[in-house]
Specification:
The chain has about 150 residues and is an alpha+beta fold. It contains five helices and three strands. Strands 1-3-2 form a three-stranded antiparallel sheet. The mean pLDDT is about 85.
C-alpha cells in the first residue's frame, strides 16, 4: 500500500530525481517552454509554482538559488520572467498534450510558462486620433472578373 507516500518516483532514486527536476525547471525558465513526458511535467509543475511564488517575495534570492544553481537562470527569472507574469498568484504553467512517442508510447506534452505580453499603451491624444483615422480608412475593393475559357 502507498500510505503517506508523496510524489512519483519516475523509476529513479532521490538524487537522480532531484537532478532531473532541477534540469527540467532550469530549461523551462531558460527557453520558456519544453517538451517532455506527461508524468515528468506533472511532477515538475508544483515545483515550478513553488519557485516562482518564492521568487516574488523580497528576500527570496537565497531560497531560489538553492534550487536554481545557474546564475543566468536566476537573472532571467528575476529580471525578465517575474515582471511578465503579471498579478498572477498561481497557475504559472500550462500543459498541452502533443501525442504519443513512437518508441514506448509515452504521452509527450509541451509545458510552457503563462506569460502576459506587454500591450502597447497609447499615451497622447494625437496618437489616439491617428489610430481612429486608420480604422476609418477602408481598403479599396478589388473587382475580379472572370475571363471566358478559350478552347
Amino acid at each position: 500500500m502507498r500510505h503517506k507516500v508523496y510524489g512519483k518516483h519516475l523509476g529513479r532514486n532521490k538524487n537522480q530525481r532531484t537532478a532531473l527536476f532541477k534540469s527540467l525547471v532550469q530549461s523551462l525558465f531558460i527557453s520558456e517552454e519544453i517538451e517532455t513526458t506527461e508524468a515528468k511535467a506533472k511532477s515538475v509543475k508544483g515545483l515550478v509554482d513553488k519557485i516562482i511564488t518564492q521568487a516574488k517575495s523580497p528576500t527570496s534570492k537565497r531560497l531560489v538559488s538553492q534550487f536554481l544553481t545557474k546564475r543566468e537562470t536566476q537573472d532571467k527569472l528575476f529580471k525578465y520572467l517575474l515582471p511578465r507574469l503579471g498579478n498572477r498568484n498561481s497557475g504559472f504553467t500550462s500543459i498541452i498534450k502533443l501525442g504519443r512517442r513512437m518508441g514506448d508510447g509515452a504521452m509527450i506534452v509541451k509545458m510552457s510558462l503563462l506569460l502576459e505580453e506587454k500591450k502597447a499603451v497609447i499615451q497622447t491624444k494625437a496618437e489616439v486620433k491617428e489610430v481612429k483615422e486608420e480604422k476609418q480608412i477602408k481598403a479599396p475593393t478589388v473587382k475580379i472578373t472572370r475571363k471566358a475559357a478559350v478552347k
